[in-house]
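Hello, quick one for you while I still have it in my head. No rush at all, and the record is pasted right below.
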Amino acid sequence: MQGEGLGVLTLSAADRAAAVAAVKAASNVTLADDDALIAAFAETALGLAEQFVGAALIVRDFALSLPAVTGWQLLPVTPVRAITGVSAGGAPLAVDGYEIELDARGGGWVRLHAAPQALVTVNARAGIADAWAGLPAPIRQGAALLAGYLYAARDTNQPPPGAVTALWRPYRGLRLEAADARA
């Protein structure tokens, strides 16, 4: 699974099936006629959950663009599990041209030793859980509740249930740091 950024994800077939089953169970839907629509709503709900909590939920690879400047830069996705490469202008940077670090809070850091002439792309793998089943229950339940609401109320203008954000709020991360005092 490749990620374009937080909130943009496509579930694997197994995760799609698990998410659809959870939404159908939460919404008392038994017909299989709308499974594709329900799956799309589940992906939308998970994308909104990612944006709300500020973290990648299901592990996937990201290609992240950073400015071509020296010094430490925090990657715009968490929790980072691995940084697998750094390139500029499509060419990999020499291993001695940068440093990488993962911190205890799930942040991924890259430090360029010299500023290249092009934007820098950092390839990273990030996410809270390997699959739908590994997500914390409140995140799964909130996503299923929101997807079920989107499915059932798609012709109305009613607001989504407040329970959704109540379920997700404990997982919401607040990132105020734009830079780090790393030397």
Remarks:
- The chain has a mean pLDDT of 90.
- The first helix runs from residue 13 to 27.
- The CA atoms of residues 4 and 108 lie 17 Å apart.
